[in-house]
Structure formats: C-alpha cells, structure tokens
Request: fold
Amino acid sequence: MFLLWGLGYDSGVPELPEVEAQRKLVEKHLLGRGLARVATVRDTIVYSGVSSRQFASRLEGRRVLAVRRKGKHLWLELDQRPWPTFHFGMGGHFEVYRDGARPRFWKIELESEDGVRLAMTNPRRLGRIRLLHDPLSEPPLCLLGPDPLDELPSLGRFMEMLAARRGPVKAVLLDQKFLAGIGNWIADEVLYQARISPFRLVGSLSEAEIKRLRLKVRFVIERAVAVDARSELFPPSWLFHVRWGKDPEARVRRGGLAFGVVGGRTTAWVPSVQV
Reply:
C-alpha cells in the first residue's frame, strides 16, 4: 500500500484547511476519471438518507467532473446526479493507495479506472456520507454560513452579521451558520492573533476589534490552506503549537497559557494578551 494521507493536523477534528487539503487530494486522483468500482460497508449511522448498497450502485461507472468543498463538507460532481457528499466528523479522512488491504475503519472505497483506490475512514462514526441532487441547495449545506476561504463577507456585512448575534465571540465563530468551516483550533488561533478574549460578548467588540477579527480569520485560514494544513509548517509563533498543553515550557514563553470552556468546547487563550 502506498499512502498519501499525512497532512499533520493534531486536533482529530478536520476543519476547513484540513478538508480543503482533502479536496485537493481527491481532486488529484479522481478528477476526470471514471469510478470503476465502489465498495461500501453497511453502516446505518454514517450513511445518511441512503443505504450503502444504493450509494455504491449510483456511483459505479460515473465520471468525476469536479471536487468541491464548503466549510467542512466535501462532494464530488459527477456526470450524472445525485452527487456523493462527505463530512469527516472526528478523525475521518481519505487514504489513497493501489495495493494492499483496506485501512481500518473504512466506510467507502472508490477505485478509479486507472487503479487508484481512495478509502474514507471514520473510526468514531461521527462523519456522514450522503447522496444529494444539488448539495448547495439541500441540508445540511444550505444551512451553512459563508465559507471564509471562498466567500468571506465584506467588513460591512461582517459587522452586520455580528450585530445580529449574542453570546461569547468564540461561540459565534464556532457556529457553522455564521461562518462555515471554523472549528476549535481555528477559533482559538484567530482570537489569539486578534488579541480578543474568547469570553468577550460580541456586542462589546469595537469596530477596530471587529476589523482585526475579520482580518485574522482570513489570515489564519489562508496560511493554513497554503501549507495543506501541515501543522509543522504553521508559523512558530502560532498558539496552535502549544494549545494542546503538551509543552509546559511554552506556557512560560506565552506569558501564561490558560484553559477554559466556551460554547461547550475546551478553549486555550493567553489572558495577558487577549482582553
């Protein structure tokens, strides 16, 4: 087996940059190619709204015309609808190989006409595999907010969106109906670089802070996407490298790394920097 997955994210929960890296990986191996064979595992949780057998029968023989993404969702545009959509949940990803056994916890294997095989793994069964006629106009994708990589709202619109929200700024960033694709580590990184406490209520943010917040959303996501979400290539000054609590010395360097809970998620921040 030759394995092409190795993007280096540490959170176990693929966020926008990790899913974009997956999109490019799938595009590299399937774009313009026919799906010669589709193998599935019966799983009534991961397969949503369609049986695994039905899913396979609708894909075999189809050609991949495009590989798209919005937020944390990925889908294939085929030469015939419906189209397969994937949400990786926690720890899910595609592995690419030609020979050898399928990886553990695989849920679907797509084999191209030239013999390359892609298997989506989903060890915790929190991901979802669907067949949708028009993904962007159907749930869950139609319920998502703008994609901050491809559709980041203007400053004026961003301010309007925040003005309509209540609660801590981190909880708002995590809401996929606000912006699609931001998860726990991105929210912590953005707020650290914007020098804003994750506990601040959105209504308390000044115009300058909102402007800074939007700029950092763009910067963090674009920088992570540029290196295919390989965390070892993130700038050494990023909070990402120490937010997991694995480096006690880093707490001293950062001036006191603190942990709490916002929006039901473990949160890392630096009180001396973020106000």
